[in-house]
């Protein structure tokens, strides 16, 4: 009701105000949606982009899983080293089950057998290709061997190695990681 009075209030005195009916402009019969040909074009472009992106995404996910396993391993190695220094006694890190590092690992004080750290398995696609039976730090946080220790982590996809990372612990006990296989 107010919008009917508003033009009368705003019009100059003495001027007659007429009401205009707005008719919709004529438009073509076509609706606002997409045609079948347009949909097929969109699907074809999406499929082409996906076929380019999926292999790269697979590689990126493999590297992400490897980096995560590497990070867990390095974290436990540093924890073992720090405990050895803090306690002033040898600390060892080894697989949870036999020689199977893939099952996870545990860090224990050598003299008491006290568990200091425990990690679960690495995941179904991560494999430990090379690793020693145990890694032992002396009370100063150095390896008891003078040779560096190498642990190779592999990402496997359908029995094929997709990517590898090598964790190297030098004689001083500090770990570092490199891309590729251990040499």
List keywords for this structure.
about 180 residues, alpha+beta, minor pseudopilin epsh fold, four-stranded antiparallel β-sheet, 2 helices, 8 strands, about 35% helix
Please describe what this structure looks like.
The chain has 183 residues and is α+β, with helices and mostly antiparallel strands. It has a domain at 54-179: minor pseudopilin epsh domain (minor pseudopilin epsh fold, 3-Layer(bab) Sandwich). It is 33% helix and 30% strand. The chain contains two helices and eight strands, in the order H-H-E-E-E-E-E-E-E-E. The chain has helices at residues 2-10, 36-87; strands at residues 91-97, 100-109, 115-119, 126-130, 135-137, 149-157, 160-169, 175-179. A four-stranded antiparallel β-sheet has the order 3-2-1-5, with helices on one face. A four-stranded antiparallel β-sheet has the order 4-6-7-8, covered by helices on one side. Strand 7 (160-169) and strand 8 (175-179) form a beta hairpin. The mean pLDDT is 84.
């Amino acid at each position: 009701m107010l919008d009917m009075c508003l033009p009368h209030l705003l019009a100059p005195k003495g001027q007659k105000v007429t009401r205009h009916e707005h008719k919709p402009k004529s438009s073509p019969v076509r609706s606002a949606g997409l045609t079948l040909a347009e949909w097929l074009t969109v699907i074809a472009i999406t499929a082409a982009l996906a076929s380019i992106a999926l292999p790269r995404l697979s590689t990126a996910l493999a590297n992400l899983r490897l980096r995560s396993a590497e990070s867990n391993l390095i974290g436990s190695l540093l924890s073992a080293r720090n405990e050895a220094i803090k306690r002033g006694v040898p600390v060892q890190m080894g697989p949870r089950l036999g020689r199977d590092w893939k099952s996870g690992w545990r860090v224990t004080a050598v003299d008491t057998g006290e568990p200091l750290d425990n990690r679960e398995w690495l995941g179904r696609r991560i494999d430990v290709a090379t690793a020693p039976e145990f890694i032992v730090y002396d009370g100063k946080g150095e390896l008891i061997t003078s040779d560096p220790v190498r642990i190779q982590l592999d990402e496997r996809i359908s029995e094929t190695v997709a990517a590898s990372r090598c964790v190297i612990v030098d004689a001083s006990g500090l770990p570092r990681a490199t891309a590729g296989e251990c040499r």
